[in-house]
Amino acid sequence: MTGIQPLVLWTDLLLFGLLACTLLAGWSVRRSEPMRAAWRRVGESSVGMTSLTILMVFLLVGLMDSLHYRERLAPAGGEQLAADDRRQLSTEVRSALDALAAPLRTRVEKTYSAPLAYQLFARQTVEGPDGSQKREFPRLKHGGADLKYPEHELDGDIVGRIGMGLAVAAVAWIVFAAVLVKVVAMSRRVPAGAAWRAIWRGKGGPAWRAVLATLGVMLLLIGPLAALATEYHVFGTDKVGQDVLFLTLKSIRTALVIGTLTTLVTLPLAVALGIMAGYLGGWVDDVIQYIYTVLNSIPGVLLIAAAVLMMQVVIDTHPEWFETAAERADARLLALCLILGMTSWTGLCRLLRGETLKLRELEYVQAARAFGVSTTRILARHVLPNLMHLVLIALVMDFSGLVLAEAVLSYVGIGVDPGTVSFGTMINAARMELAREPMVWWSLVAAFIFMFVLVLAANLFADVVRDAFDPRAS
Amino acid sequence: MFAYIVRRLLYAPLILIGVNLLTFALFFVVNTPDDMARMQLGAKRVTPEAIERWKVERGYDKPLLFNAGAEGAETLTRTIFFEKSLRMFVFDFGRADDGRDIASEIQSRMGPSLAIALPTFVLGLLVTVSFALLLVFFRASYLDFAGVVLCVAMMSISGLFYIIGGQWLVSKIWHLVPISGYGGGLDASRFLVLPVVIGVIAGIGGSARWYRTIFLEEAGKDYVRTARAKGLSELQALFRHVLKNAMIPILTGVVVVIPSLFMGSLITESFFGIPGLGSYTIDAINAQDFPVVRAMVFIGSLLYIVGLILTDLSYTLVDPRVRLE
Question: Which single residue of A214, A289, A308, B182 could bond A53 by disulfide (Cβ 3.0 to 4.6 Å)?
Fold first, then answer.
């Protein structure tokens, strides 16, 4: 019997939980006019919508890579096992992205090969059919394997595939644009033609034109990329012959997990302690200030290093906690998020404390206190809602910093598990490859492009959010 | 003023004690010395005797906080807490796992760290402030817009790429300076140019944009408009008024890191093979040399606290309105 057994890793659960909370929070503030006005400003900004579209594509890849399962293997030796016996599950944990990109994952070469190559990157000794040996570049097992005379056919084949990819991308874009126009037309109760003209001129409401343009450009890149990826290794292969494009796609999830799950720790700590310190004052303020000064005074990398080293000892001395390597790597990733969160809540906490100090002196808070409203109620009804814009801005601004931090930490050796694919581990591996002669540059370039686009989009989006939500800006 | 400084100075040891307790909890309570011994010895050689020997060699064979077997004051002093944590206050860091004295190692490695960090810091500050002033001078023009876009793009690139790219371009393609290494005396400058230049470039994006916002806020104030109305040229207004008054927010971020320059940069030193404190820390992390990591945490926090006090003092120097209470 074959089949799959879904497996929910901790980070998957938290990632989807966080997504649900975000949607829920968005739903619950829809009545708040200031919030809606701020989000409207984000929506009207072309830069905001462009970066949001890019982030959504990354998020889609990351979420697909977060649906994990284990395959059921046929029992060996005709042994009959009960349907729920865990022994028949493969120890390899796969994700929906792995299944979708199965051609990329399974077509493993022997070692390095350049982008779009049909030969290995290095000469190898090959034995001819007559037993003679010669040094040559062997053909790849998968990349360009369908070509009979690759020297002559390669360029034509690549151009043909790019053309096909562009055609598919154009069709996909037209379908998407049509659906969007229809939805906009229905929501505004105007004919589709009028809606299209409004979008085209960039008038009224969200900057749909920017979304369509961004999506168009991305599809024009993704289409040919996908068409080429079915036959070639578009970004080459790494030392053990894995497709680099596949590795970069897998890195996206790691970056997203680190950038978002860290907030699970920072948010409660910073909000609760910051408000308490600012509102209650006195010894509570002293204690909280003391705690964050102590945490702040330890250099960030060192504190993270110390905590990660200790966490590693805990994980290494308890191998029985984890059934598969993926679960152990996942625990390490989650622990890294928690540690990053423990070390990075202090900035937001200080900010919230300062803002609360100002808020508590405002008339409406003093009036509430004079009426005898309880402290918890004042904090929940009058203080917290007026801090939410700061929290939101801080969260969005932190994201890109955390993605960049992951790369550095993985380089130092205190980042993700070596078995987890991430931008940091890719860069780390690529460092050795640069010293080779001739140089192997494609892993580094691929990691650079994907990471740059992700962080740039996050930075631009953060700027737009800050401008929209910060009352002092503008 | 005097009372304030005294209070801050008294607060410093309190924070150091907090740091000390935190590292003690991290290194000895979360994991017992037995766990650490087991991991360091590896799975093959773990026998109770080996663990015991490992602990005796490193002085971990004592109780954590209270030694019931000893007499008098020794019940408190012959403990891991006293010997490993409290002794750091007199800069007695003990020995690293390879047997070398940590304190003397730190002393000899401070020089190279500073040789990179100080020029990077000073040059970086000059370059970013001038760049930000340039953008503010041309504010609301295409040049300003392009500059901001450049800043955002530059801060979206991981620092690792600056180093890898710089080493590849300058050392491997142009053969201008050695890829990595370090030499004594004047010879060192050959090795220092590239890391310093890369450090400055990598820092431009984020800080220039931040300074530009500060300058812009200041340039829009009434007194600057008055200065312009008086007939000061834009350049004079920028340098005489905007720059001076924007010093306070800039100082907050800048002065606090000055003492920490001693710590060096982990990544830069390790990429360029410079024998400073940064590479020392990285090596210790990779070798899981806990005594060294603990010592570096202690020194790092000490320098940070010094930076905090310096920040407070510098406020009074640049802004006579600030009265510390």
Answer: A214
User: For the purposes of burial, counting CB atoms within 10 Å of the CB of A3, is it exposed (0-12), middle (13-18) or buried (19 or more)?
Assistant: exposed
pTM: 0.90
Q: What helix, strand, coil percent values describe chain B, rounded to 5?
A: 75, 0, 25
Q: What is the DSSP letter of B276?
A: S
Residue of chain A with shortest Cα separation from B40:
A313
Closest CA to A269 of A359, A358, A338, A331: A338
Cβ–Cβ of A310/B27 closer than 8 Å?
Answer: yes
Nearest to A95 by CA among A129, A54, A62, A135: A62
pLDDT exceeds 60 at position B262 = yes
Judge whether A10 and A330 are in contact, CB under 8 Å.
yes
Give the DSSP letter string of A346-378: HHHHHHHHHHHHHHTTSHHHHHHHHTT--HHHH
Cross-chain Cβ contact A423/B158 below 8 Å: yes
Q: Residue B36 above 80 pLDDT?
A: no
Instruction: Sort B186 into a burial class: Cβ within 10 Å, 0-12 / 13-18 / 19+.
Output: exposed
The interaxial angle of helices A346-359 and A263-280, nearest 10 deg, is 30
Indicate the SS3 state at residue A408: helix
Would the CB atoms of A310 and B30 count as touching at under 8 Å? Answer: yes
Compute how many other C-beta atoms are within 10 angstroms of the C-beta atom of residue A83: 8
**Interface touch B14/A455, C-beta < 8 Å:** no
Give the three-class secondary structure for A139.
strand
Using a CB-CB cut-off of 8 Å, the residues of chain A touching B155 are 459
Q: Which of B157, B159, B285 sits opposite A414 (nearest CB)?
A: B285
Query: What is the rounded distance in angstroms from the CA atom of residue B144 to the CA atom of residue B208?
Result: 12
Enumerate the residues of chain B whose CB falls inside 8 A of the CB of residue A410. Answer: none
CA A323 to chain centre: 25
Contact A180, A208 (CB under 8 A): yes
- Taking each helix axis from N to C end, the angle separating A442-469 and B159-166, rounded to the nearest 10 degrees, works out to 140
Beta bridge partners of A113: A237
Contact state of B39 with A408 under an 8 Å Cβ cutoff: no
Query: Position of tokens 């096909």?
Result: A164
Cβ <8 Å between B158 and A427: yes
Instruction: Establish if B169 touches chain A: CB-CB under 8 angstroms.
Output: no
Residue A433, φ and ψ in degrees, nearest 5: -70, -30
Count, residues in chain A: 474
**Cβ pair A214, A53 in contact under 8 A:** yes
- A297 and B19: CB-CB below 8 Å? yes
Q: Which domains does chain B have, with CATH numbers?
A: 2-90 (no CATH), 109-318 (1.10.3720.10)
Indicate the pairing of strand A89-95 with strand A133-136.
Answer: unpaired
C-beta of residue B311 within 8 angstroms of C-beta of residue B255: yes
- Closest CA of chain B from A66, distance in Å: 25
Dump pLDDT digits (tens) for B193-247. Answer: 899 999 999 999 989 999 999 999 888 889 999 998 998 888 888 888 898 888 8
Residue of B nearest to A399 (CA): B156
Rounded mean pLDDT of chain A?
A: 86
ipTM over 0.95: no
* Confidence check: pLDDT of A473 > 60: no
Amino acid letter at B80? I
